[in-house]
Amino acid sequence: MKITTADWRNPTIGPYHEGLHGVNQPANIAFVQIFWASLGLLAATAVSFQIALWLLHSRRRAALADAPRESKQAVWMRPVYSWIPGLKRHLIYAPLFRLRRACRHPLFGSLPSRFHGMILCFYALSNIGYMLAIDFSNLNIYAVLAEFRGRTGTLAVANFVPLVLLIGRNNPITTMMRLSYDTCIMLHRWVGRIVVLEAILHGIAWAAVHVADEGWLSVASDIQNNQFVTAGFIGWVSLGLIVTLSLPPVRAACYEAFVDIHILLAITVFVTSLVHCELSGFDLPHIPWIIAAACLWGLERILRAMRLVSYTFSRNGRASAVVEAIKGRTDVCRITLSLPRRVDIAPGTYAYVRLMAAKPWETHPFSIAWVEHKFSPAVTTAIADETSKSQRGKMTTTVSFIVGAQRGFTRDLFRHAIASGDSFTTGATFEGPYDGHSSLSSFGHVVLFAGATGITNQLRHARQLVVGYNARTAAARRIVLVWIVRNYDAMEWIRPWLAQILRLPNAPNLLRVKVFVTREAPHIPHDLVLGLKSFAVLFERPNVAGLLRAEVADQVGAMCVTVCGPGGLSDDVRAAVRASQSSGHDIDFEENGFSW
Questions:
Q1: Neighbours of 135 (CB within 10 A)
Q2: Domain for residue 108, yes or no?
Q3: Which end of the chain has fewer beta carbons closer than 10 Å to its terminal beta carbon, N or C?
Q4: For 507-552, what is each residue's pLDDT tens digit?
Q5: What parts of the sequence cross the membrane (predicted)?
Q6: What's the structural domain count of the chain?
Q7: 8: helix, coil or strand?
Q8: What is the 8-class DSSP label of residue 85?
Q9: CA separation (Å) from 372 to 90, 102, 119, 132, 376?
Q10: What distance in Å separates the CA atoms of residue 482 and residue 464, rounded to the nearest whole number?
């Protein structure tokens, strides 16, 4: 027998906290389709823009790589359109508010740039618009709340898919969009906050009608005895815990524990959402959406595991690591990871490392500082720059990381190295490399800023550009590496690698290295590379804006400025690049970091 509103004790309230009474399901599905279509269009636009940019850079590199080396590249110094510098200054590179972008906000962590903020604003406003597109002309407020409940629940589940896609390190879409993982994590957090908001509103809309009909005791009874409501409540609480534990002060207090708890809570949300929809008694379209999001997440974990196994193990053995505590006043370790096969690793990448002698249940991301390829011990043939496929199969790769001892794992790692006589050898796993989407080989002028261990991101860019210049595969004619450290002892981190770069042909004429030491009195350090005019040590804080103005005054072709370091340095370099846009020159900016 069909149930009608007359069967409820209060027919103007009762039906609207159960089932699909008052829920406009066709409109819900239509808005989800519009929402996903708009995201697809946005992604397609971003990919198309990146393809166009790649074609421009490829054309520029091809034109300049074989050009006379004394060429000033003046034709490339200015952008194609005169309004582009203004767009970069006021939108693309601008922080959301005044100056701060990379410096962490106490509640929200790293803030989006103005451009990313605009995208997030579109994302949030579209969700708000879909939520509020309900029949407010209905005089029954409980029917309106029922429609609102259905809409918010549907949108929360629909957002699961982009939420999961943004967290994937092996996602080809974000790769084609050239989104760094740092950016993806930031977007993931904001999308997650929208999901939590919609889930909270979904629960409130249900509870408001239920309380009006049967009171709070009935709500408590349903949570305890009604499996459909129980599943929804557990998912609701799990989302609340996720957003609470994701606050920067809580997350930073114990990041390793946060990651594990976050994953467990996310799995709980997926499972309870699926159970909640299954027990509704209706064939809801939400069910395949949840399964699709869960499958995407599972596929990501499988791909990560496959990458780890592929690069860590081979018939020649398995990966191992040597961990050294670097001498000096800086608490820093050098991890040298020996992989059993050749792995091609682009500059600006990072990898996840697991050390069997130090919390083997944890894996941590570190920026890759240096990479070397060599033949395995069984092969005695000399290594050539260009190797055949058969030779490549006999090669192995050594990957080096510089790890500053902060707290948690990195501090424990440093202490372990000290206790082991400054170094120890252990089994290891390698998962990566990730990111490294950017190539600087089409720029005539490159300025690399690094703060402390941020040098790991910049060092291989410098080497690649010098090697590319000699091989006529890069357009670079002037490279400036600016490194800011507290103590000169930090030179020990990279001394052998920097010496290798400066010994490359044409490096002294092409590359300028400026090291700023901020916490030592001026003195004359004894260093192997100080005799070169291309290397300078200054015992002062750098004037970032002044340094960049000087480079812009002598700009050679298109310029790219990149930074990797503390948030304060990144924000200073961003501000200097924005100010330099007033020159009308073609100046690009890239920021690298771990804000997660």
A1: 13
A2: no
A3: N
A4: 988 999 999 999 877 776 655 455 567 788 889 999 999 999 999 9
A5: 34-56, 115-133, 153-169, 190-208, 228-247, 254-275
A6: 3
A7: coil
A8: H
A9: 41, 32, 40, 57, 12
A10: 17
